[in-house]
Amino acid sequence: MLSVRRFFMYVLRTLRVHLKKIIVILLTVQLLFITIYALDGWSLITDGSWKSFTAPFFQPLTPTTKNHTYAVFDLKSTDSITRLYDKMNFDTSGKWIDTYTLKNDLLTMKMGPDKGRVLDSVDELTYYNNDPRLIWSVVLDHLLASDSNEYEFSWYDWASFESLNKLIALKDTNVSCQFLCESSFDKGVLESVEKEIQEPLFITNRNKYDEEVWYNRERGMLNSNSVRQIVHDHCKENDAYYKGAPFELPFIIRDIYGKLRPEVYDFHAKNHLLYSGAMPLSLTVLDSDKDAYRINLKENDSSQSNIVQSNILQEYIKRHANEMQNGDLLFNHTSVFEKFLRHKSTKKRKLEIEGLDKTIFTKEYLDLSPSDFHFDAKTKIGELEAKLRSEGLSLHDTRYLQSLQTSIRTAPALQKKYFAEASEVADATAGGHHRDKRFLSLGYNLLNDPQEAEARLSSIIRTFQKFTKANGLISWLSHGTLYGYLYNGLKFPWDVDHDLQMPIRHLHYLSQYFNQSLILEDPREGNGRYLLDVGSSITVRTHGNGENNIDARFIDIDSGIYIDITGLSVSSDAARKYMATFVEEEESSDRNFTTLIKDYKLDGNEKFDEVDDSEGFAKYTVYELREWVNSHPDDFDKSEKDLVTKAYKKELVMSKSDSPERELPPKQRYLLNKKFNLFNCRNKHFSGLSILSPLRNTMFNGVPAFIPNRPITALKNEYMVPSRYGFLTFQGKVYIPELRYWFSFPDVKKFANLQLREPKITRLESPLNDLKFSDVNLLLTNMMDCNFHSVFASLFNSLNSTVYRLKELEIQYDGGLSEEEKGSLLKTLRSGELSKNIKSPEKDPILYIYERKLWGKVKEILNAANIYNIVSQVEKEKIEEFVKVSKNLFERNLKDFNIPDNDNDKTVIDLNSKGLNLFGDNKKTTNEIFGSDKKY
Q: LicD/FKTN/FKRP nucleotidyltransferase domain spans which residues (predicted)?
């Protein structure tokens, strides 16, 4: 007892002696914390909005405006971190997790020697990250305040230049043209840049530069003479930079050089887009899938001006000065957007296109007519020229007229390739052959993060479908996209693009009104920005030299991912052999297609000139053109001669093919295809009117879409479609019908522990091809234990979509239901809350990247055990939710399938018991549903 008292006395004496020192130390630590917080160094962040998540010891008060509260988060709170993980993985809405403000975000420097410094004014800005909340708020408010429908566009405000800003932020490190024109980065310069910006210049492939063998090999392949030539041909100094102008880089990429590593190409192409990229003709703003609004862009021959350079940001701040709180201002973009939609001036921006019907998606079926697959280009040219003389043309109409005038003079054999893919990028994993050359970007970590890739692919197809619905444009799913839809209402997970078809008449609507327009997703739903790009020769409807099989693309400007759009029309291409059966069925004749051709009298000129829009060389057959080129060799360059030769060889191959029309001249092929309603795209994929029409209303990726009338017939012309809906293996992938999802087979082997190689993972009791419901929970739990978190996130987020598609399948392929009953039940299904509230199966990619960065900072601060507990808690709840829905689905007791009768408020139609039971005891016999098309 005495020793304890002595010990405490000793401690007290020591404290008295050193009290002043202790107080000094405590004050110093406190001052240090305050300094670090002021310099934004506490969290080592790269994103201004991250500040609201960090600085746990100096949490600011939650400021408010008259209408809004600033969202502030505390990392000391487990609830905040749990919410972030939940939102990052399982909330696919368009809502942001925090708010964007003037002081905390825009004016706080994020990198470089000034990192953490808070500017006094936006006039001091030399760069900023174009957060959608900032850009939407400022641009829309400007349009409303000025009562103008014109806006001074800059790519800097709409495409992602966050990586390029790291170079703009440099003050001491010199970067030159050579840095972006060598196939790989110079490591010395790279490290100097990163030291100054205080973070990696890029993430994807960054670790390779620390591998000495790899780096020496890459740099050893450089040739100094060729690099100098590349610099000379593709890059020049930027005079504005050397004059001290803000937002400038020291060099300008004049023309994209393709043979670079993807991390170099990313910066190279972005520089080219910023300084040399062609400006869109307009902005098309979507109000969900209801309407579209046109914002015209000021024609500016000089450099583009961003919201700071054009002064509209400064004007915005002045107009909203009374909303300032403690020198800060909230940018609430959704509030501004809704004000924009309600404003009287917005009515003049609303697109109402004569000839298009916005109600087409209210119908169960959409009838197409042969006239949808014909287009009289010469008549259209005459109409536009007359309008030009009498009242003038809009910019879109002017460009469309120019395109038509060029197109009708373009010989199919002389067409030069219009779309350019980034196929030369020196790394096959970059997927450059499936990315637009102008916009290929690695995003945050696109090559190594399948979740981001899936987010982009989901966003692009959802936005396109909303765009077509809002304008009454007709298109339908085709090729691999249609094939993937068949099983679960989603694309195949291994597909890297989407394929859509549309009738030629609607392709011309697309070209006339939307070519070169930047299509902007409703900011309340997502942040998609897509360039609609239509080729310059859409009146050419034959395969020609094969360089222009795609008519249009819908391109994600932040990644280069695109949707391929092809128009179907009557053409003079020879019909494929598989169309013979279709024609014979349509004609209800005992004669085969070859006999029908012989019996149809053709004189070679029958009405052909009435529909032949072409002029000059475009009227020549490939044989005639080749003969002309050979007799006038000085009139054509080598590339043109090669294109003609290529087309000639393709025609020779066709003449020896099994096509029933192979022996007919082009004019007669055209008339025959017209007679039998045979339509094709420029890649010679043929279809018939009754295969396509009536188009059927459905849901794809959670949004309305059309599919062909006979999807199985359409698909079997291209693929070997298995007849059974059930467990299926395909190219290393496996479809598990109980989960309604495709998985990598090696992944399934692992989390099902089929080979007993995972000692901590419980092996399934039932086989995968006959999975019992009791094993669903176990399979999902195993997924998490094997770290397949992103796989489960995709599975969970697509739950609404796949459940909807399953019920649709059960109704469509129930042979016991009449066609009228099927139509009525499908209409009921589409009128229910389930279809109206199907959430997006993937996150918005911009939100995903934003939240992923925040989570990365959480992982730097929080220990692994705490993170594990948070993740496990969230995912356990999601697994329970998924299992509950699955159980009710298998037991045919799902609440979402109890749908009120629109004709009688007191009646509820129970769809649970309607249609096939694809998981019943007799599923091995009832699941043979894809053998042929069924009427429904």
A: 468-719
Question: Is the distance from CB of 181 to CB of 227 less than 8 angstroms?
Answer: yes
Angle at 907 between CA 905 and CA 909, to 5 degrees: 120
| C-alpha to C-alpha distance for 440 and 423, rounded to whole angstroms | 10
506: closest CA among 626, 601, 372?
372
What gap in Å lies between CA 761 and CA 584, rounded to an integer? 57
User: Is residue 866 within 8 Å of 873, Cβ to Cβ?
Assistant: no
Strands 498-503 and 562-568: parallel
**Separation CA 246–CA 703 (nearest Å):** 43
CA distance 298 to 481: 38
Q: Are 433 and 421 in contact (CB under 8 A)?
A: yes
884: left (phi over 0), alpha (psi -120 to 50) or beta: alpha
Assess contact for 757 and 871: CB atoms under 8 A. Answer: no
The helix (run of H) or strand (run of E) holding residue 582 is helix 579-587
Are 705 and 465 within 8 A, CB to CB? yes
What does the alpha-carbon distance between residue 202 and residue 193 come to, in Å, rounded to a whole number? Answer: 11
CB 834 within 8 A of CB 806: no
Q: Residue 731: left (phi > 0), alpha (psi -120 to 50), or beta? A: left
Distance between CA atoms of residues 774 and 772, nearest Å: 5
Beta strand spans in 450-559 (E): 476-477, 498-503, 517-520, 529-534, 552-556
Question: Out of 143-152, 390-399, 684-693, which region has the weakest mean confidence (pLDDT)?
Answer: 143-152
Position 765 scores a pLDDT of: 82
Which residues are paired to 700 by β-bridges?
Answer: 703
The CA distance from 778 to 832, in Å, is 32
Best CA proximity match to 599, nearest among 686, 660, 678: 660
d(C-alpha 538, C-alpha 508), whole Å: 8
Q: pLDDT for 574-584, tens place per residue?
A: 999 999 999 99
For residue 379 the two structure tokens come to 């008549």
Beta strands of 25-116 (E only): which ranges?
Answer: 100-101
Element (H, E) at 688: strand 686-688
Count of beta carbons in the 10 Å neighbourhood of residue 299? 11
**20 falls in which pLDDT band (50, 70, 90)?**
low
- Among 424-438, 533-547, 775-789, the least confident range: 424-438
Segment holding 285, helix H or strand E: strand 282-287
Between the CA atoms of 425, 430, 433 and 435, what dihedral angle is there, to the nearest 10 degrees?
-100
Q: What's the rounded Cα separation, in Å, for the pair 274 and 332?
A: 27
Q: What angle do CA 534, 537, 543 make, to 5 degrees?
A: 110
The tokens of 231 are what?
A: 């610099």
User: Which class for 30: exposed (0-12), middle (13-18), buried (19 or more C-beta within 10 A)?
Assistant: exposed
Read off the pLDDT of residues 598-647 as tens digits, 9 standing for 90 and up: 887 655 445 555 556 788 899 999 999 999 999 999 999 999 999 999 99
